[in-house]
Design goal:
By secondary structure, the chain is an alpha+beta fold. The chain contains 25 helices and ten strands. This is ZNFX1 domain-containing protein.
């Protein structure tokens, strides 16, 4: 049985860290050993021979300390392989450094070196970065992620390592060759650290994995997988050119792998992270080949490991049957999740050329004549500029074409047996729920805006509508029957400022005529009104309607979100109010800039046909995050998939296991 949750990992195990620190302190008393990332910098050859430099004055690690480091690494490795925390994502329980603090910030110095790295530089950088990544959160990890994602800094160095001239399982101490066991494996472990994969600095994290994906063939396929096959054939992780003791004597901060299983699990989790982040990776032929090779090598390794006898430095998968079964259960589960991501994409890929299979499936339904598929699957073509087959391509905010489109949107039914272009499963469930929820949000403002524009085009509008055009107010249509489509209209709208926020980006300060409010005679009462009002709340969806200069009664529509709402500013004047809005369409910038530049030339006549409208019945924030999650969730990683989206295939009897 796997052990209960205890210490977090080898890299985060406080008790083990204390043991290491105590050992280190004892060693320092007998012989001081200064942390020096440049040990071997000028030599670096195999046993000092191939680097061409001198190895005089090296601060070698004392033998008792080497023995203690090796003992702790083995002990932590065995403990982690049997821990329930091995099921967690990432490499935190697989790749770790036991001797930490003196080495924590060395990576900052190494990354700034102005020459090409050698093996020693790369190993020390990765080891130091691993120690920093153990911080999980905070300034230190954000600083590391920013550097790794910096095109002129860490990202450039990362590409250097991936494109290093030579990689070997027997690199020894040769500075011109990267060790697969002691440099590349820790690097893959660094990339899959949860502190990095779950970091909030998404732009930098994405840049890191994009760089890895760009080198998928040259780095992963041609080098990493080749080295893994070599180790599988040997049934050993040993470097034939350097012993563990010799490596630790030169570099006490090195990670020493004791099991080939570590390589498999780290590589699988790296590939899974790439598939999760980069959508096109799921249909990449090289990715499919890598996964295929990984499955083949895993089968060979699993079969051969049973015939290996006990070793001096024990692999927990060799000497402990219970640990071995537990580890391969986790590995197979992770590989199954990875394969699901590929299988789903393969199915999509096979349909992507012309969606013939989707059309064939759809033709089986009797009501196909009234069932209009989305996007290019539709027999009469796409509806508008936001009509897509894949929900990930749909803008959460509507577009002008979508709002004014006369055709009905594609709204699949969640009822079993109703037509859909996707087979039963998680992808179909996510697609259906996304489209229905988005329509629930969009329908009121679609009806309101389309009817408001129709009213503007009438030659003889009603007196009530004329008042709305001049003073603003509540716009209703269909005699007030469809009250969920009502709009709040603000008139004489103009741009007065542009601001830039680090988190929210560009925001435009809009000025509009203050709506008439009964009982609000002074600034205090106006402020009290806005504090109680639900109008123009932060996060509300609004639309700016600007008249066309070329065509009469033709309006451009720009959708935006209220970014900030200051009641004091809203209530300051009795005839006007200001609000900050962030617009989706970048073309609005030139319009706003031109208007602000010519502020003195703006007249009431030039503003009389400009309107800012918001729906009175929807609150965007209540929908946005749910829609975003439905849109970005990978179908293969949907929790409780077999219950939420069972693959029926003619069998409706679903066995629900007891909790």
């Amino acid at each position: 049985m796997p052990k209960k949750k205890g210490q977090k990992s080898g890299s985060n195990n406080n008790n083990n860290n204390n043991n290491v620190n105590n050992t280190v302190k004892k060693s320092k008393k007998s012989k001081k050993a200064k942390a020096n990332p440049n040990n071997g910098k000028n030599g670096g050859g195999n046993n000092g021979g191939n680097g061409g430099g001198k190895r005089n004055n090296l601060n070698l690690t004392p033998l008792p300390e080497i023995i203690e480091i090796m003992r702790l690494q083995q002990e932590i490795n065995i403990k982690n392989f049997g821990s329930s925390e091995l099921t967690y994502n990432g490499s935190d329980r697989l790749v770790f450094i036991v001797y930490k603090e003196p080495f924590k910030n060395i990576w900052k110095k190494i990354v700034r070196k102005n020459y090409f790295w050698n093996q020693n530089d790369a190993r020390n950088f990765v080891s130091s970065a691993l120690v920093t990544a153990d911080s999980r959160t905070g300034h230190e990890i954000e600083e590391l992620v920013e550097e790794l994602g910096n095109p002129e800094g860490g990202l450039k160095r990362l590409k250097e390592v991936m494109n290093f001239l030579s990689m070997s399982c027997d690199a020894g101490l040769n500075d011109s060759v990267l060790s697969f066991q002691f440099v590349i494996l820790p690097l893959l472990g660094l990339l899959t650290r949860t502190a990095i994969t779950e970091c909030i600095l998404e732009t930098y994290v994405h840049a890191i994995f994009t760089a890895v994906y760009a080198n998928l063939d040259s780095f992963i396929n041609r080098n990493v997988m080749k080295m893994l096959e070599t180790l599988v054939q040997r049934n050993s992780v040993k470097d034939n050119q350097v012993s563990m003791e010799e490596l630790l004597s030169r570099d006490r901060y090195s990670f020493i792998p004791y099991s080939l299983g570590t390589f498999f699990l780290v590589i699988v989790r790296l590939l899974t992270e790439i598939l999760r982040r980069i959508r096109e990776a799921s249909v990449n032929k090289t990715m499919h080949k890598i996964v295929c090779d990984l499955q083949r090598l895993k089968t060979i390794y699993q079969q051969s490991i049973q015939s290996i006898g006990p070793q001096q430095f024990s692999d927990p998968l060799i000497n402990n049957l219970e640990t071995r079964e537990y580890f391969f259960m986790i590995l197979e589960k992770d590989m199954e999740s990875m394969n699901k991501m590929l299988d789903t994409s393969n199915e999509k890929n096979s349909n992507s050329n012309s969606y013939l299979r989707s059309r064939e499936l759809s033709s089986k339904f009797d009501i196909i004549k009234s069932f209009d598929l989305p996007g290019e699957l539709s027999k009469v073509g796409v509806r508008h500029d936001n009509d897509y087959v894949k929900i990930r391509n749909i803008s959460l905010l509507p577009t002008r074409g979508e709002i004014l489109c006369n055709r009905q949107p594609f709204l699949p039914s969640p009822v079993f047996g109703t037509p859909h272009f996707l087979p039963y499963g998680a992808a179909r469930l996510l697609d259906t729920q996304f489209r229905l929820l988005r329509e629930d949000m969009l329908n009121p403002i679609r009806g309101g805006i389309s009817n408001f524009i129709k009213a503007l085009s009438k030659d003889q509008p009603s007196t009530e509508f004329k008042n709305i055009q001049q003073e603003g107010g509540r716009f209703t249509y269909d005699g007030g029957i469809t009250d969920n489509g009502d709009l709040q209209v603000y008139t004489y709208v103009q741009f007065i400022n542009i601001t830039c926020d680090r988190r929210k980006g560009l925001a435009y300060t809009m000025r509009f005529t203050f709506p008439k409010i009964r009982g609000a005679k002074d600034e205090f009462e106006r402020k009290e009104y806005w504090e109680k009002s639900k109008r123009l709340l932060t996060g509300n969806l609004v639309a700016l309607l600007l008249p066309s200069k070329r065509f009469e009664n033709n309006y451009s529509i720009y959708f935006g979100i209220v970014t900030s709402r200051d009641e004091k500013i809203l209530a300051k004047y009795d005839d006007r109010a200001d609000i900050d809005i962030s617009f989706v369409d970048p073309s609005i910038y030139s319009i706003a800039l031109n208007e602000i530049s010519n502020y003195d030339r703006i007249t009431d006549q030039s503003l009389e046909k400009r309107f800012l409208v918001e729906s009175t019945s929807i609150y965007l924030e209540a929908y946005y995050h749910i829609l975003k999650t439905l849109q970005t969730t990978n179908p293969s990683s949907l929790p409780f998939e077999k219950y939420f989206a069972p693959n029926l295939k003619g069998n409706r009897d679903i066995k629900v296991e007891t909790p």
